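Help! Submission page says 'invalid entity' but I think these are all valid:
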Amino acid sequence: MKKLKVVHYLNQFFGQIGGEDKADIAPRLEEGPVGPGNAINGGISDYGEITHTIICGDSYFNENKDDASTQIEDYLKELNPDLLVAGPAFNAGRYGMASGSVAEIAAGLDIPVISGIYPENPGYEMFCQYAYFVETSNSAAGMRKAIPAMIDLIKKYVEAEGDLGSPEEAGYMPRGIRKNVFAEERGAKRAVDMLIKKINGQDFETEYPMPSFDRVSPAAPLRNMKDAKIALVTSGGIVPKGNPDHIESSSASKFGRYKISDFEDLTARSHETAHGGYDPVFANEDADCVLPVDVLRDMEDEGRIGELFDYYYSTVGNGTSVANAVAYAKEIAQDLKDNDVQAVILTST
Amino acid sequence: MVKEIEREGIPVVHIATVVPISMTVGANRIVPAIAIPHPLGNPKLDDDEEKNVRREIVERALRALTTDVKEQTVFEELD
């Protein structure tokens, strides 16, 4: 069995370059494994070797996607690995986007990809067809489970010579790809069997699960901005200085409703961000760069808008589960309706 | 959050730096922002210029809120 040449993609944090202050670094290439790559490399030593690690800052990748992609594609063309390993990205939004995009680049070069991600990470839904993703927990606390799962999948991949079989058999998350297989019985019989089971109230397994689209139709536009009451909502964690409700920097368990009717402008003295996972320096210096209160006050004075609602709503998007975000938004929406707010500007970092 | 508020019939404009994430979460009116740590600002500019940049983005957000859309729409900067 030929040993695989493996390249690993990591962000600046797991690539051991630094935290948020290094999130804007351009792609770079290191020889050998780095950080979690060491454990992966040890686990797959009979099957392959991580010869190189590509590291890129999460903000850099997402803000300079074309440049970052070109550079990473050049690295991959030059290295021409048998397999790319990316992440795991857990529920980190930017990292999931970057890992998924790198998987797409690799797929374009016919390089298979094995990665790990939390199912709610938008990077999974967007890029699931380009990689074999093992399911991970939502934070890096799950590293100890994620790494063995990725090693296991890499081994299976090598043993099966690239033909991993179905997601259920091999232990990766569905890729949304249909493959032709031979069945014992013809389709008509299988369909009727399913129907009979359904009629009898028995369990049956569909061969084609319907995708779950949850889309909300666009609400009607405002006719008259001059009289409109507008509210601000943010997932960027802007809170009054001192974070009175102790909103968590990650996986927020609550949202805050804060009075802004007394503020013409947000300052370093009045407001800050509770959000982890992005560099807080700018938001702490001037929270208007996340929550544009100063501009909306000007517009209020000029009669461009009717009024800015007296309160704003804030939570931290970082790692917060969809279920919690939905619950917060339902409460917020009710409060907005009770206060006759006509439109919302929602800002995200 | 965008979707759940809009579900109640209140139009929401999402100002977001990573537009593909905004598309995935189902925002209908999207205004691209500047950078992840400062979506509505640019610390490289002086205060007045920075405020002008912010004003432009908020103006675009208001334009989005007064525009009838049938599907997910990204409101880019006007030429």
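Support: the input was valid. A stray whitespace character was the problem, and the output above is from the cleaned input. The first strand of chain B starts at residue 12 and ends at 16.
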